[in-house]
Design goal:
By secondary structure, the chain is an alpha+beta fold. The protein is built from five helices and six strands. Strands 1, 2, 3, 4, 5 and 6 form a six-stranded antiparallel sheet that branches. 16% of the residues are buried.
Length: 171
């Protein structure tokens, strides 16, 4: 049963949330989400915590040409599970291909020996294994649904150049 939405000035800006076209997750405009909960190998929390600083330090490098806007990850349930949520541009299958083909050296060292059943992103069964842990969000909102990561980067470069031009004109 779907609840009736009361139309008012607050709902006038409602975003159209749809299911991802080619895989799990939700989509608004050009942005998509995927959330996952993985079981943790008992006793591996120390390994995860030791690897996490390097993973965090390299995040910008591995995402430099990518489509990720936001990526959140944490352990919960007394360090027995890992929650991961990612907001990215476009469709699911190309994003999954990017993980497999472009970020293996980043993901694998963090999760191998930590997440139960994880054999690496290059494992032929990776997609099937991953699908067991996907959770579709019940709520999803993005501020600028039609701005891709590339659009945001370009806009920031233009803004910086414009501010530089204004500073030079004042000199």
């Amino acid at each position: 049963m779907t609840a009736k939405i009361v139309e008012n000035e607050r709902t006038a800006m409602a975003q159209k949330v749809t299911s991802q076209r080619d895989g799990p997750g939700l989509r608004i405009g050009r942005r998509s989400e995927i959330s996952l909960i993985f079981p943790v190998i008992p006793g591996s929390v120390k390994i995860f915590c030791q690897r996490l600083p390097q993973f965090q330090a390299e995040a910008a490098y591995w995402q430099k040409g990518g489509t990720v806007h936001d990526f959140v990850m944490f352990m919960f349930d007394n360090d027995t599970r890992i929650f991961m949520s990612i907001v990215y541009d476009g469709n699911f299958k190309p994003y999954l291909d990017d993980i497999i083909n472009k970020t293996t050296q980043w993901f694998d060292p963090l999760l191998l020996g930590v997440v139960e059943g994880f054999k690496g992103t290059k494992d032929p069964g990776f997609s099937e294994w991953l699908s067991k842990y996907v959770i579709t969000a019940e709520f999803f909102y993005v501020s600028y649904p039609d701005a891709t990561r590339r659009d945001v980067v370009k806009g920031l470069r233009v803004q910086s150049a414009f501010e530089h031009l204004l500073d030079e004109a004042q000199s």
